[in-house]
Amino acid sequence: MSKFSAYNFKDIKALVRVDFNVPLNDQFEITDDTRMTATLPTLKKILSDGGSVILMSHLGRPKEGSIDKYSLRHLVNHLQSLLGNTKVDFANDCIGQEAIDKSSNLQSGEVLLLENLRFYKEEEKGDRIFAEKLSKLGDVYVNDAFGTAHRAHASTSIIADYFSPDKKMFGLLMEAEVISAEKVLHAAEKPFTAIIGGAKVSDKILIIENLLNRATDIIIGGGMAYTFWKAQGKQIGNSLCEDDRLHLALEILAKAKQLGVNIHLPMDSTIADKFAADAQTTNCESYGIPSGWMGLDIGKKAIADFREVILKSKTILWNGPMGVFEMEKFQEGTKSIALAVAEATANGAFSLVGGGDSVAAVNKFHLADKVSYVSTGGGAMLEYFEGKELPGIAAVKKG
Ligand code: AMP
Fold first, then answer.
1. Neighbours of 366 (CB within 10 A)
2. Inside any domain, residue 394
């Protein structure tokens, strides 16, 4: 694989896989362009070298063929405004004659956006013929779509087989994601604390199991903490619980003990009489919640305990909120933990925040620039920390 920053793109047509899967409203206006702006440094480097860019992306989950609602045409004007003086053209199909003609006529400094890859079922199937057709559109392949790196799709993985090692590389966004993730998983300075929250134990089981072999401390917050309390025979009232995972929770606690990993559960909770923004609330021990009440956030004692662990950490990985932070009454835990992570980072720790809801949380509390790295790939990041090899990374690295 080549190193993107050292590559000279002059007169080169770069076929770039991006993740432009942005949310659109009913008028097809982009409501959050983070995924587009995140890849701008990659595009600008290619263009300023004197190369041209052919962009491939998916948008939404179109079921059958092309549907206007999922057309990447809706993104052209905004992409044009983000790139300033650059000419941005659009091909109504990602393969076929129009795509071939427009890409071969592309001049240096110009951008061509191809129509939604997922209008072809071959994309998600990882079809080799489809991947080969796409590969013919550019001279080099740049993967800048970390968000889809866990998929072995035609454009994210299979396509890389049609480029020689010196003609494939990660874009700057992908490279930064891979470097941060590898640093945490393979070169974490100890103490290494993983903060895992969110609703379901079942979603996070694999990541916890993998981290048991790497972290010194694992903080478990959010709805999933109550399954761990109930597994130990405690009263959790009407809190979220996965009864079919009680044995797994016990296994994790036992394995942690055996490996010398400290598991931290919230000792107290903010409890509510209903799952609602206007619920009545009070504080109580997480292992003795009365029936009719549910834990919707970690409590003050838990915040203090978790803060202490976080502040003595040198490496921090955070995935999943500590409570129902979308509602004001239950945001304190997540906000305090975000502040503690920011403080630890200011003191020299390396912190990586990833996964949809924890990213939303650091953004909500304006702390995104106070942590070391905010990952853009929710599912991809989770799978990476579960210990899986991501096809999008492996395909580019492969000789
Ligand atoms: P996840 O996608 O698994 O990371 O879960 C994120 C969701 O978990 C957020 O929407 C939170 O509102 C929710 N959540 C966090 N804590 C709790 C809790 N104690 N009870 C119910 N839901 C929770």
1. 10
2. no
